[in-house]
Amino acid sequence: MFVAIEDVCFSYTDAKTRALDNFTLKIEKGEVISILGRSGSGKSTVLRLLAGLEKPEKGRLVIQDEVLFDDKTFLQPEKRGIGMVFQDYALFPHLTVAENILFGLFRMKKAAKKKRLQEVLELVELQDFGKRYPHQLSGGQQQRVAIARAVAPNPHLILLDEPFSNLDAELQGKIREELRDILKKANITSIFVTHDEKDAHILADRIVKLKDGRIEFVGRPCDMLDTYRQTGIQPLTDGFVEKSLTGVN
What we know:
Elements: E1 3-10, E2 20-27, E3 32-36, H1 43-51, E4 58-63, E5 66-69, E6 82-85, H2 97-102, H3 110-123, H4 139-151, E7 157-161, H5 169-186, E8 189-194, H6 197-203, E9 206-211, E10 214-219, H7 221-231, H8 240-246
Parallel strand pairs: 3-8, 3-9, 6-7, 7-8
Antiparallel strand pairs: 1-2, 1-4, 4-5, 9-10
């Protein structure tokens, strides 16, 4: 098992209930996992705990046999080998595309940096955009730069927070498939959070549905559709199940 998250619990100060309650998940190398849930379900809390931005009350995180946190260990964020793609992409406006990507490669030698830069530019199909600045790019291109920057240092894991929230509806459909292709080509294990079931079903190998800090469902997208059909549980996105089952777009 490449990533093992075991019995993780977390509460925010003065909260009456836990934001995350005994969250457990095992992830294979190269898997794309979606954490799906409504606002307040605990999905962003999962990312913050994995990234090291919050400290859990209890639980354990192991990546590739290295303990990142448990009762005795808490590895600092910069030492975890985890990449993060934020909702607003957080690109440096005064740096070019190439400079943004190179920012996280300060430990590499010059020749290795240049080689890795070309590799990730090709990965996200922005080979001709290295000298442009973020304001000269479309929203979809900015997202690909943010992904390239996260992928460049070869992290163990990439976390994506609502990756399509800043894109218009027309662009979202195109970028969903592009993002899955990029993640699969890079073969980097990925976790992304979303409130949109379309994102989860198109992108994810497996979906983890959260409700009130607890896991309500774990399985493949097709398994979730079967569960909805058999149990009558309501999806988060109105009409999505009906459209998916009938093939209507």
